[in-house]
Amino acid sequence: MLAVHGLSKSFGNVHALTDFSIRVRDGEAVGLVGPNGAGKTTALRCIAGIMRPDRATITIGGHDLHRDPVAAKSVLGFVPEIPYPYPHLTVWEHALFIARVFQIPGWETKAERLLKLFDLTEKRDAYTAALSKGMKQKVMLLMAFLHEPTVLLLDEPLYGIDPRGSHSLKALVRERLAAGASVLISSHAMSLIEEVCGSVSIMTRGRIIASGTKAELRERAAAPQGANLEEIFVKLTEE
Length: 239
Description:
The chain is α/β, with parallel strands linked by helices. The chain contains nine helices and ten strands. It has a single domain (about 1-85, about 150-235), classed as Rossmann fold, CATH 3.40.50.300.
């Protein structure tokens, strides 16, 4: 599972995160939603080990990120908010790079499948510098899923993605959930959160202010029975 406790991060006098804590169990997808500037991306970057928190206890797949970062990251798949594949590598070379880093047996078959799912087959020999932003995002998704991680962090994974790519992403997330993976998704696309996530954490100003299933959050917000997640989110964050 993924377990984060007491994550705090400041930039000078600005407190980006204050005592951020979240748990994602095996086979569970949790949505992380909040207004712009709430601290979602900072939280995911800290959990992924890209940014150093001021303090936190982060456990990824049973491995303490601070004490054993290589073991923790070996089971992690991460898609950042903005795609930045290596511009002078081809799409296929990105797959080769990940395969060597994670020592993936039989990676070619897995890579071919992901290329097909994300309509990248015809672009396999193209340098990513020449790709559209949506295609670049698909390359990032390919890299995140290739080693079949047991913990997934997805930060705005639908960035620039077309409907076919969105459908493939949701199918892959459900596939990893069925295999027992823990998935944390941050997105403004409420439809994605509603379709894939069993529970949701809502944050604002660096803190989680509410967590639970859609029904539990609806009750907390005193929202009408038919209220969707967007309407619930607006009521809980309107102050």
